[in-house]
Amino acid sequence: MTDDTMTDDAVTVEQPLTEKLEAILLIIDEPHSLVSLAAAVGAPVPAVRQAIESLVDEYDGRGQGPRRGFELREVGGGWRLYVREDYDDLVAEFVGGQAPARLSQAALETLAVIAYKQPVTRSQVASIRAVNVDSVVRTLVGRGLITELFQDSETGAINYGTTDALLQNLGINSLDELPPISPLLDDGSEGFSERA
Fold first, then answer.
1. Domain check: are 109 and 163 in the same one?
2. What does pTM read for this prediction?
């Protein structure tokens, strides 16, 4: 094996690692440790540390490319992508000027079940809706419309409930102002009553 071949092999090994890390870093919403990132991409921690350092240099413009509008920062013992401080005002103005994203039909149905049945677990909501609701619940938590209330001591299941943000979005002061659900539907599995 020549020195040229070894260099080519090193490049092909490093390239997928940095790409894998970038893919993970793009979707995480809280800092992750080197150990966590290494487990996610299936690589040794020293290799991940080196790849992270390489990405930091690249994003900061110390490589061959330009400085990026985002940076890779270590915060609280973990790594995550952040908007550069220089662009905080620009991003805040952009986000503030956007119309709020609409909820999908699945999210609205899940939110209704949680609002009427709270506290309720994910599996209970899934049973009522007869579909997997994991991603929808994550979306609703991420939007601040529902929150984890407590963990059941026997089953370990997390119970969810609505937040004040939901009340504000609905323009009501309490859940008592929600339209009544049919008293004949003990679990809501058949739908909701029509308003009289």
1. yes
2. 0.46
